[in-house]
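Example record

One chain of 202 residues, shown exactly as stored in the release files.
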Amino acid sequence: MKSDSVAFGVAGIAFGLIAGWIIGTEQAKPVAPPVAAQTSAPANAASSSTRAAIVDEAKVTALKSVAEKEPTNVKPRVELGNLYFDAERYDDAITWYEQAVKLSPKDENLSTDLGVSYYYTNQPDKALARFDESLKINPKHTKTLLNLGIVRAFGKQDLAGATKAWEQVLALDPNGPEGQAAKRALETLKSAHGAGGPKPGA
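Predicted structure tokens for this chain:
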């Protein structure tokens, strides 16, 4: 899993749904990558406050060497996934996260990292399926639930599903970064769609 536990940061309004919220990481260090440009959400709906990291090719080479020599060692595969994710090279990240998940199938953080990567490569259905696997491991994993809501809203235009996921996050973690992000998302949905709450397809 990413050391800071991958989650989305979204800023701005996408088709009148969500505005101005950033998901914190486990170390309370905000991460604000843009909404995937290939998704149905407008590419300009979110602006990145951070630039993609530059891949350290020497480190990549060293990690690949370890991975090749140690086919059952999950650590270099996770680190490679993290390096590529931070560089916004999501296809490469998926390659290594998939290998890592095979070696460590009960790691909900790693499973969710893979799901986030799928979303960023315009594969929302695969992302949702991966989040389902994460929630089978830990039904109360707030980062997974928060990301589930994002993919439901932006990837599938399923406002009811997004609302349900974010309400679960808020119930589980009302004062934490995920809970606060979910609260802001829910408040934005409510204000955007009136007191009656969000309406699918609106």
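Notes: The chain has one domain: 9-193.
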